[in-house]
Amino acid sequence: MIKVLFVDDHEMVRIGVSAYLSAQKDIEVVAEASDGGEAIDLALKHRPDIILMDLVMKQMDGIEATKHIMDKWPEAKIIIVTSFLDDEKVYPALEAGAASYMLKTSKAEEIARAIRATYEGQSILEPEVTGKIMTKMRKPALDAPHENLTNREMEILMLMADGKTNQEIADQLFIALKTVKVHVSNILGKLEVQDRTQAVIYAFKHDLVQ
Hints:
Layout: E1 2-7, H1 11-22, E2 27-33, H2 36-46, E3 50-53, H3 62-72, E4 78-82, H4 87-96, E5 100-103, H5 108-119, H6 127-136, H7 151-161, H8 166-173, H9 177-191, H10 196-205
Parallel strand pairs: 1-2, 1-3, 3-4, 4-5
């Protein structure tokens, strides 16, 4: 079972989405929170596989909550589920460590698919978010740490940008899963980023992805 913490300040949203998710055979909503502070406490208490995080909440917003959770628990996998596509929401949320970014206009089954994909190590971004990244973040680099990547690491970075999981990369390149994990760790270190999502953003920003 994929254990989920659902964070949203609208009770009816939590009730509706939680009911759908709990009806899935492989997903269990283990806790719900109505603000960022409560989300931090419940995330560290339950250590869920996935956190569904709203952005705009009264006590503490989702960006601050995401930062606090990632600081205390870097392995957390957070999916932003919001109504906002503003630049001041999208980029800070991803930079804070969110793995995926979904809109509340998404159907419940799409959110369920995003949960499964993020659990498997993929980063799911709404097409509008991907477009923003490609349009705004493709800028000439003042320095190019990606030039320190080996040919194999560059190849794996491209597959990461294509949404491949570590296992899919291993299968496609006919190498061991453990070897892929080592390469991914080296890539993150050389690019000076914290996670796969930020590595993919880097690839878009530096025009490495066609």
